[in-house]
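G., the chain you wanted modeled:
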Amino acid sequence: MPRHNRLDRVDLLSKAVAVIRRNGYRETSLEDLAKEFNFTKPALYYYVDSKEALLYEIYDKTIDEWLGVIKAINDNSTMSPDQKIREVVRQFTHLCVDRDEMAVFFSEKAYLSDHHFQAISVKEREVVDIIAAIVSQGVELGVMKPMSAKVIAYGLVGMTAWSYRWIVPDGALSVDEIADTYYKILSQGFMAD
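Predicted structure as tokens:
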């Protein structure tokens, strides 16, 4: 294999995400990926064991990045629970809109092997548990209503996760304005008093 065709992992994953996002996982072949990298299929096997292993690596990297962001927010002792939830909503909305990995993350999970599916699910539950812990802290401090912290956490993730499907980054509302609207819905509801 020529030296100029060597790939680093970041480039490999970035290009794989682009191809999978464009074609869908099921319709993407290793041949398609090899063409994207100007490789032969056998040369691609130097970098990946299988298409599913590559998908899992994309998932694992994406969820680890999200966990890093949410843990940093949770660990910030200068922020109140409501400020933390607002920042979680803002960061997660940006990730969903700005990063193609999130579109793959929310649309292709069914193609993971059972073992990989379970490993990612454990990390997804960790995300929900951290958000629920922030909400529980807010309830304890009296700044949030006593409601199911898990339901709020799942609702927050569900509401923001679909952003990649409909938000246009240069649309009428900015990503931050949409994130602020999500936060207002979570914190105040949307019905007039």
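The first helix runs from residue 9 to 23.

Shout if anything looks off.
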